[in-house]
Amino acid sequence: MAWRELVRKEFSPPEKVKILDTTLRDGEQTPGVSLTPEEKLEIARQLDALGVDIIEAGFPITSKGEKEAVKLIAREGLNAEICGLARCEKQDMDDALDCDVDSVHVFIATSKIHMDKKLRLSRDEVVRKAVESVEYCKDHGVTVEFSAEDATRSEINFLLRVFREVVDAGADRIDIPDTVGVCIPIGMFNLVRKVKETVNVPIAVHCHDDMGLAVANSLAGVEAGAEEIHSTINGLGERAGNASLEEVVVSLKYLYGISTNVRLEEIYKTSQLVSRLTGINVQPNKAIVGENAFAHESGIHTHGVVTSPETYEPISPVIVGRVRRLVAGKHAGRHGIKEMLSEMGISLTDQQLKEVTERVKSLGDKGKEVTDTDLLDIAEAVALYPRKIEEKVKLKELLVVTGNKVTPTSTVRLEINGNEYTSAGIGVGPVDASIKAVKKLVGEIANLELVNFKLDAITGGTDALANVVVKLRDENGRIISGRGVREDIVMAGVEAIINAANKILSIRHASKNKE
Ligand code: KIV
Ligand code: ZN
User: Fold this and answer.
1) Would residue 327 count as lying in a domain?
2) Is the entire prediction scored with pTM above 0.90?
């Protein structure tokens, strides 16, 4: 709560802020998003479990399905106040009232540009419509929240006049929308302060993110005394979206010490549900709910968080229903890799850990993402090649010739028991040719037969990691598997054969010593 004292000393924020969630209305206005009534209901239930105070369930006039969805949600018996949006038009308000909502959110634009170009109404006509609409909804027994659309581009004295008159007409709450996201925090602060000096009802702010300032502007509104914030899950909404609910509530709590009714531990689940049903993926670096929000890659950071999480985590991921993720990549360090592997139940020697880290870094240098499974495969490959198994067979050189008019040919030079041997092989492809060349040499010393060769790409792309598992049979019928993981398929295949050969030789050596 770094700023709590400062904010309290300098400003007058409320102790608690209400959250109006408009994921199902402004959020659904995200280009390309359209939800069925059942999907909207599913999200509304989760928003209720999340603990938002008000669910703006939709804009009933827009379609039959939308009206049905708002009705379904209003009749669900949720704890949250259910709200429907309406323009200052009788049919809009009737459609919202038909849905049995607890509140109607009525709006009309108050900026010159909207009044002249869109509404074609004079200032007095706008005031009259606003006042009559508030009265109409109040006469129907619902709570009324009034928004002056495009408030931040409206002439201030006119805006204050509209607010004064709608409050006199019975509006229960006033909302200040930054409809096209052009406000700045100090501007929102001053605006909210002026509105609070003018009317005596709770003030809400509704900020769009066109300049990436929606959350900052919302928080500035709270600093000046706004008691309600309109926000959406994952920051969905028209154009660049609205203030993101998760960023708003976590900032309120941890930076300002201001509480909300939101159960933070439900945040991630809600974000995932909304992302799945809307089909809008959350950007990986999105605060709080993005894939990387609690992921650490660099050696310095992973070492820090593993030793003491608060070094690089402003809040614990558990608070918002998440877990920390350590990522293997080119910035990785041994501490992080060790921790990741130990979470997978793998413990390596220092030497093996060093080799795994080097391989991970080398992949990272090639721009590859190393997933957990990749890391596991690399670790297993390294561990299967344990230093305690004496490396009787070592690859010294591999040369492959291939092309569309040549027979794939491979030449290998191996060190076996301290002596060097060279062999060549031809095959249907470079892998086949190399395996044959290697097999010739190791077969000579161990009489090995290749019974199985399996190749998987374990990372995507043309520079994928190749995972080769081979099975060799020795003269006693013993089947030994070997594995190789490399960016180069041929190298992975050769490594797998050599790995298996060394295991067989060391088993033989061990059993000879026993005799
Ligand atoms: O952005 C806006 O102005 C709105 C209003 C309907 C409140 O969404
Ligand atoms: Zn909006």
Assistant:
1) yes
2) no
